[in-house]
Amino acid sequence: MSNPLRLGVAGLGTVGTGVVKIVQRHGDLLASRCGRPVEITAVSARSRSKDRGVDLSTYAWEDDPMALAARDDVDVFVELMGGENGPALDAATKALQDGRHVVSANKAMLARHGQKLALAAEKSGVSLRFEAAVAGGIPVVKALTEGLAGNQITRVMGVMNGTCNYILTEMERTGRAYGDVLTEAQQLGYAEADPTFDVGGFDAAQKLALLAATAFGSQVDYDGLDIEGIDRVNLADIEHASELGYRIKLLGVANNSSDGVDARMKPCLVPENSAIGKLEGVTNMIVIEGDSIGQVVLSGPGAGEGPTASAVLGDITDIARGLNIPAFGVPADRLKPAKRAAASPKAAYYLRFLLTDAPGALARVATVLGEGGISIDRMRQVQHAGPQAPVLIVTHDTVRSTLDKVLQVIADLDVCLAPPVAIRIEDV
Ligand SMILES: NC(=O)c1ccc[n+]([C@@H]2O[C@H](COP(=O)([O-])OP(=O)(O)OC[C@H]3O[C@@H](n4cnc5c(N)ncnc54)[C@H](OP(=O)(O)O)[C@@H]3O)[C@@H](O)[C@H]2O)c1
Q1: 46, 63, 79, best to mutate for ligand 1 pocket (most atoms within 8 Å of CB)
Q2: Region 140-301: CATH code
């Protein structure tokens, strides 16, 4: 058997200890799959005295991740600290420049600096890999860069944040409001004390930016994403959507056309009987569409110790086998500049209006929609008591900018009692 592949693991939190456990538990399995042993030689974290529930006694310790990244007995710098900049970026850059491979789960760093890091890797002839940064345990980067490499990818989409999917499915299942369910998710450990990064859609958007770059061979364009979280999703809309045969999901969609890439992370309606519509709880799902394959659906755990460490080990195994695949599927200096589409493709929309319960109110709304070129597929008035009548409309496919102009006219009508709600219905 040839020389061992020597790992330096920076970060011994949830994911880092998960990686240590797999390397310790599956030493023989990894060695037989890779044709060489995979060993940890050194580790780094902030606190040396913390009990992490794993035996670290045989590994060298570095307080400073930069020192770990520079060690001669490290072949792969495994970055599991997190953070967009700072020690993670500095140490990963150092490791690559010095000719060490880097495996990272850090979506924040990669969404901002992925291309620069990939260029550094290629200059040194080593690998930069980030499977664990996108949808945790689901091997989607591998699917795009290897298994589906013969396809022109036209669309990639999915549910990429388990916290948000848990909250939305619990709201629907229990009829409880967003705030209640969020508090429960925090108590269960599904949501952070400060949930903004998850519920605001930013965590999922970083993953989508990496996915879109990998799918379309374009530069990572996090700033080009249209991002909206789930914090304004109303229980009434979840219930009404359900009555109409839809579910509300925080859906990331990146669509590639001759017009450019349209990428957004927003609450959407999807048919309840679609694979994404049926997705419950914290599970993630990614749907990839290619010209030869049609549609591929991957689902599984998007976070957590075991699943995320599993993805890290997948990347390490490739490196141990001598595979050097460009981080984004094509060499970093050949990634196309990100071209943003001027508009999203046409779609149907779910509309909710709160109207005066008076004869002719609904007719006036329908007339404005018709005059604005928005045709109605379905319409229903919700049972109500009192003078305010909720009305639901599903449109035929339309352009969002046209719809927005028409909704502004409706909002100004005296029969319209609250700003209209419009949610895209994604064709999944
Ligand atoms: N958790 C998941 O399910 C998951 C899923 C996908 C991707 N990720 C990504 O994986 C990475 C790690 O996440 P995690 O959940 O494992 O984080 P975590 O539990 O907070 O662990 C972070 C680790 O990094 C260490 N660390 C932080 N700053 C450091 C520094 N300046 N020098 C040395 N060590 C430092 C910490 O040391 P101490 O322990 O001593 O404080 C800790 O061991 C992040 O990029 C995250 O986005 C996580």
Answers
A1: 46
A2: 3.30.360.10
